[in-house]
Amino acid sequence: MNPRKELLEHIPNMRAFAMSLCGRADRADDLVQDTLMKAWTKLDTFEPGTNMRAWLFTILRNAFYSDLRKRKREVEDADGAMAATLATHPEQDGHMDFSDFRIALDQLPPDQREALILIGASGMSYEEAAEICDCAVGTVKSRVNRARMRLAEVMSIDSVAEFGPDATSQPIVTSQSTSRSVA
Amino acid sequence: MSSKNTSTNKVNKAEPRVTSDGEPGTGLDDHLQAHIGGQLKSMYDSYLNAPIPDRLVELLEKLDEVSRKSEPDETGEPGK
User: Fold this and answer.
1) What is the ipTM of this complex?
2) pTM summary value
3) Interchain contact B70–A (C-beta under 8 A)
């Protein structure tokens, strides 16, 4: 098969993985572009018949982490003002309606987020995920579990804040506040 | 009238996963985990179904072009 065609077919999955990891379209596309170029030059190391998606995810994932390290260095090099502008940047890009979930997801450590995305959304097996993340299958499992627990924590706090007694009791109190039946 | 255990087995329905209100612990976790799983999948799918930016398609075309030019002997080679 024509490698260009084959790579083309994997772009939607690569973008979905990249977007899930970093949450920003511009960075995700940079990651995919980076991955495509690397994959192209390494195409002869890819064994035909094996899982190309997993191979591409591995390259993308490594690009994501080296990018993350680079950004971290840049932030550490700069002073607080620089760090602050970087920190506020992602919010300008928020365009989706599951933003609450997105915010919760972004609070996870990258290794947990990555494991959760691979297992919970991308359809990778634990074995494939372990290979992509270069760790043991058991490590993937525990990362996924911790990610789920952490998300549950964050999201249950969120829903209490959103649908808690203050928000729901307010309209009742304001509409018929005078009727008191409780002695 | 030997059996004395009639009519006492009404209440044997233990409902293990029904906690409608926000009780931390048992039932909420299942519910919340299902919710989290659903959110995660729909997020991923929305990314998956987003249109591919032109620059990525163009990049592949360029790469293809470049490698074609650098390997002119590729055309008529009998493969194994």
Assistant:
1) 0.75
2) 0.71
3) no
